[in-house]
Each structure stands twice: as C-alpha cells, then as structure tokens.
C-alpha cells in the first residue's frame, strides 16, 4: 500500500540525523559517486604516513573505513553528537578525536603532521593546514563543489545569486591553497546525479545537511513539501545534481 504524504514526512521528521551515515536513505534516494574513489585513495596515503590528521571527521565513518592508521592518527570534529559518535567509532581503532570548533588556530603545533585529510569540509583554513603540515607533507581532500544539489535549494528558496551559485569553485580552492604556500598537484571535478524517490528522503536530507536550506522545518515548508510530494509521485523521482572536486596539495620540502 502506498504511504501517504503525512506518514512519510512524520517518519523523516523524527528519525535521528546524528553522525554522517546516510544509510537511512537506502532505497529512498541515490547519489552517484565520484569516479576517483576518495576513501580508497585516502587509505593509500594513510598507509604511507607517520602522523595524520583528519579534519571535520563527522562521525568518523569515512576514516574508520580507510584501513590501517599511521602511528599517530588524530581527528577533529565540532558538533558534539558527532564528537561522541566519532570517539566511540575511532578510539578502538587507535585514533584520537579532538573536539574543535573548526575555527583557527587548529589545536596542534607547527609541522605536526605529514598528512592532513578532510572529506566535505564546511570551511578550509588553508593557512592553518599549511602550518600544521611538515615540509613535504600533503593535504588530501574531497570537497563539495559549486551549486551542489541546487535543484533542491532553489525549489525551496528560489533562484540564488550567481555569486552564491559559484561559491566553492575548485579554482578558488586552488588559488587559496597556493596563497597559503602549497603546491596543488591534483585537482579533479565531476557533476553527479542525485535522485530522491519519496518526500521523506528530502525531509531527512534537509534535516541532516542543514546548510542547504538554513532553518528548514517541516511546518515552515509543509505546502511546498506537499507539492514536491506530488511531483515525485507523478515522475518517480526528484532529480538533482551533486558537484564534487578532489584536491591534493603539497607543502614544499624544506
């Protein structure tokens, strides 16, 4: 029996959105993955490191799945529920989780790490990354690109200014890395397909990825959600496009 709009929305409004695990969306939404395989490449770099830092680790899911850690493995996270989840997940694997507000300075000494990683950081403090890297060390990161999933954003908020649509551009990241004294050795960019198959998936996504539609609540957008529910039922899915880029930057050797 097909579930009603009210049932789908109520369920998605109550489920926990702690951590950075999207498994609740299985069968309800799909997101095409970048071709490069960030976690696999991250694991290769961790295997060759002696001291590594994972910035904005979320619940530690990606780092935990990367395999063997170097002798020193540290992760930072700002959101208290994620700090608790990452601690429970990563401490048994030998990684220390540091609660950090994601504001400069990073709570580490100069040249503390030969590898810094980050998947989907909200903000990158490039000068701090350069400071904590040892000479010859590497920053390796997969990041959200410009206008990612903006079909969803603009459905609720309307057309966004060009400067907003262009923010998080990979070439801006290149320039910022170089301004901090790092050499960009790899930069790749892809546009990928995302599809939501029921309105509950949209509600869950917007509750979890809170910067997409700031201040989102079901009550505020109930009528817009009802219209989108009708569109999904007619067309089978609401399709959006995710953008991702991979950046690898190296600190020049002394």
TrEMBL record:
<keyword id="KW-0489">Methyltransferase</keyword>
<dbReference type="InterPro" id="IPR052939">
    <property type="entry name" value="23S_rRNA_MeTrnsfrase_RlmA"/>
</dbReference>
<protein>
    <submittedName>
        <fullName>Class I SAM-dependent methyltransferase</fullName>
    </submittedName>
</protein>
<feature type="domain" description="Methyltransferase type 11">
    <location>
        <begin position="53"/>
        <end position="140"/>
    </location>
</feature>
<dbReference type="InterPro" id="IPR013216">
    <property type="entry name" value="Methyltransf_11"/>
</dbReference>
<dbReference type="GO" id="GO:0008168">
    <property type="term" value="F:methyltransferase activity"/>
</dbReference>
<dbReference type="Pfam" id="PF08241">
    <property type="entry name" value="Methyltransf_11"/>
</dbReference>
<dbReference type="InterPro" id="IPR029063">
    <property type="entry name" value="SAM-dependent_MTases_sf"/>
</dbReference>
<dbReference type="GO" id="GO:0032259">
    <property type="term" value="P:methylation"/>
</dbReference>
<keyword id="KW-0808">Transferase</keyword>
């Amino acid at each position: 029996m097909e579930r009603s709009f009210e049932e789908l929305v109520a369920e998605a409004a109550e489920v926990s959105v702690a951590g950075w695990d999207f498994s609740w969306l299985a069968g309800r939404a799909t997101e095409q993955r970048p071709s490069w395989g960030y976690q696999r490449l991250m694991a290769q770099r961790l295997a060759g490191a002696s001291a590594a830092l994972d910035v904005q680790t979320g619940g530690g899911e990606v780092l935990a799945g990367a395999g063997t850690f170097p002798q020193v493995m540290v992760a930072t996270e700002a959101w208290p529920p994620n700090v608790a989840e990452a601690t429970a997940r990563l401490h048994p694997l030998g990684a220390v989780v540091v609660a950090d507000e994601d504001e400069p300075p990073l709570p580490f000494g100069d040249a503390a790490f030969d590898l810094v990683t980050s998947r989907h950081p909200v903000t990158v403090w490039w000068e701090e990354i350069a400071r904590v890297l040892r000479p010859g060390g590497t920053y390796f990161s997969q990041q959200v690109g410009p206008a990612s999933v903006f079909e969803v954003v603009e459905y609720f908020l309307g057309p966004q200014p060009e400067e907003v649509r262009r923010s998080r551009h990979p070439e801006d990241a290149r320039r910022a890395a170089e301004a901090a004294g790092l050499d960009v050795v790899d930069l790749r960019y892809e546009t990928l397909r995302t599809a939501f198959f029921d309105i509950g998936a949209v509600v869950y996504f917007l509750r979890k990825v809170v910067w997409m539609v700031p201040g989102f609540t079901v009550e505020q957008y109930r009528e817009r959600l009802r219209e989108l529910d009708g569109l999904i039922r007619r067309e089978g899915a609401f399709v959006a496009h995710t953008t991702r880029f991979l950046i690898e930057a190296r600190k020049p050797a002394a």
